[in-house]
Amino acid sequence: MKPYIICHMLSSVDGKIDGNALDAVIGEGEYEATGTKLEGDAWICGRTTMQQHFAEDEPFVSVSNRPAGPQPVFVARRADSYAISVDTLGKLRWSSGDLDGDHLVCVVSERVPADYLAMLRAKGISYVVAGKSSVDLAEAVDQLGEHFGIRTLLLEGGGHINGAFLQAGLIDEVSLLLVPGIDGRHDIPTVFDGVNIASKTAVPLKLKSVEQRANDTLWIRYTVVRS
């Protein structure tokens, strides 16, 4: 039931993904326009990205701190499109189950507080509990496919969640908007961060297409080569 997963990202020539720094060298709406062409049923980000752009400012504070443990998938409703948040411990607070027209699904671990799940149910937010101490991404995406009918999932996270998906062998395609700019700063997130592959070899890719877009941006698509 695993969806087809495309990591869709925008980066500088040196692989940095600070969108604010890149605004001056990319056409407005270019990232969204190319993302639409990928025809995803859903998009997924990690806690940091969701906190920066979508969640409420104040974090959720549990009253009981009692871990929920294993839980069935909660489907508040089915939708044509979904926004998926990976939030291991249930820190993000949400105002509703609608995120810019997409139905919100929260992916958490069994360590999430039980009252966090109660809050999600009360607000009509769907959730998937997968993994004991951290989110089991493979289990989570299988559940997303089975219970929500998601067939194409756009991974649009920061470097660490992208790296976690890559290391778990879950990414099928990389869609990269390479903008005509160099960041050059230390400690700026890159497209993939935090991968700990014992073999110390690059993950092989096969070129699918290259398209020159406006403002000298290149849209490069690669298929991930399975071993």
Folded structure, characterized:
- The protein is of the alpha/beta class.
- 22% of the residues lie in helices and 25% in strands.
- The protein has 6 helices and 10 strands; from the N terminus they run βααβαβββαβαβαβββ.
- It has helices at residues 19-22, 30-37, 47-53, 114-122, 137-148, 159-167, and strands at residues 4-11, 42-46, 82-86, 98-99, 102-108, 126-129, 152-155, 173-178, 205-212, 218-224.
- Strands 1, 2, 3, 4, 5, 6, 7, 8, 9 and 10 form a 10-stranded mixed beta sheet that branches.
- Helix 3 links the parallel strand 2 and strand 3 (82-86).
Strand count, sense and barrel status of the largest sheet are: 10 strands, mixed
DSSP strand (E) fraction? 15-25%
Counting DSSP H or I runs of 4 or more residues, the number of helices is 6
Oligomer: single chain
What is the CA-atom radius of gyration, in angstroms? 18 Å
Mean pLDDT: 95
Instruction: Compute the separation of the termini in Å.
Output: 21 Å
Structural class: alpha/beta
Contiguous low-pLDDT stretches (5 residues minimum) are none
How many DSSP E strands? Answer: 10
Helical residue percent? 10-25%
User: From N to C, what is the helix and strand string?
Assistant: EHHEHEEEHEHEHEEE
Shape: globular
